[in-house]
Write a structure and sequence with these properties.
Nucleotidyltransferase, domain 5, five-stranded mixed beta sheet, 11 helices, 9 strands, about 45% helix, globular
Length: about 290
């Protein structure tokens, strides 16, 4: 029996094929497969390309996708994969879920994912998953890369309104590829700057730490991230010494982890392997 784990996100899709002994048979990446941000056509193409690259059809497929948190998303991915692999057993989860399983396993614990956005997942002693945050850049994702970048842009615009000329304004303007900071609202409306480019400002601020206003913004972000992790832990009725892990482009930065102030263990396995571990657990007779 062979197992295929798929980690489908907004920038790339990772495929991992293993046999029933856990031996790796294939590992590769294709393009984005988040149907909400990349479009259904691009997502379908990334999956089609990946399945065509496999050395042999898998018996079981578990895919974790960034756009599978809604019923229509689950249906989209199930339809895509069932058309490509009609004989395989399919399991569709969110990318956050398989990231948890890869990072911590099937035991209770807390995973904080801090990238462009932010979300905390916790699994209680009964196997129930709870979440905190992760409701998107418009209404949530506190402490994530976009939140940090947005605060940096707001701070730069306020400083400009006050008639202040500073290196901070210049750094934000340059990082966004603008001539003047006041071009930002129109650039956002026209799409020349977007969620990703604003989230990339987090790296700019990290390079300016401990200078201000970088220190203030990053400190507030770290507080938000800690609150997310602790909220998920409390909802899952876990103790303060429960296993914790952190992932994501922002969460992997030593400065951010230090500022959050919690003990985190590195992820045990990548998300695609988390998908396989979950598939194996689902296939094991209870």
């Amino acid at each position: 029996m062979t197992f295929l784990g798929i980690d489908g996100g907004g920038s790339k899709t990772t495929f991992l094929l293993e046999d029933d002994r856990g031996r790796e048979l294939a590992r590769f990446e294709t393009g984005p497969s988040n149907w909400l941000s990349s479009g259904s056509g691009n997502a379908r193409e990334s999956l089609t390309q990946g399945i065509a690259t496999l050395p042999s059809p898998p018996d079981v497929v578990c895919g974790g996708f960034a756009g599978a948190g809604r019923p229509e998303g689950t249906e989209f991915y199930r339809n895509c994969l069932s058309a490509l692999l009609p004989k395989a057993r399919l399991i569709i989860e969110t990318d956050a879920f398989i990231t948890y399983i890869g990072a911590i396993g099937l035991k209770p614990g807390v995973l904080l994912i801090a990238g462009t956005g932010s979300i905390a997942l916790a699994r209680n002693s009964e196997g129930t998953m709870v979440r905190a945050g992760g409701w998107g850049p418009a209404f949530s994702d506190e402490g994530g890369g976009f939140w940090i970048g947005r605060e940096a842009l707001r701070t730069a615009l306020r400083a400009n309104d006050a008639g202040v000329s500073s290196e901070f304004i210049a750094s934000v303007t340059q990082a966004l590829g603008l001539q003047k900071i006041t071009e930002a609202p129109l650039a956002w409306k026209e799409g020349s700057i977007n969620v990703r480019s604003i989230a990339a400002l987090a790296s700019t601020l990290a390079g300016q730490f401990p200078g201000e206003p970088a220190k203030r913004i990053l400190s507030e972000a770290a507080t938000h991230l800690k609150d997310l992790a602790e909220l998920a832990r409390h909802r899952a009725n876990l103790g303060p010494l429960c296993p914790r892990s952190i992932s994501g482009s922002l969460g992997s930065q030593p400065l951010i982890k230090q500022m959050i102030g919690l003990e985190f263990s590195p992820p045990v396995s990548p998300p695609a392997r988390g998908a396989i571990l979950w598939a194996r657990d689902r296939m094991t007779p209870s």
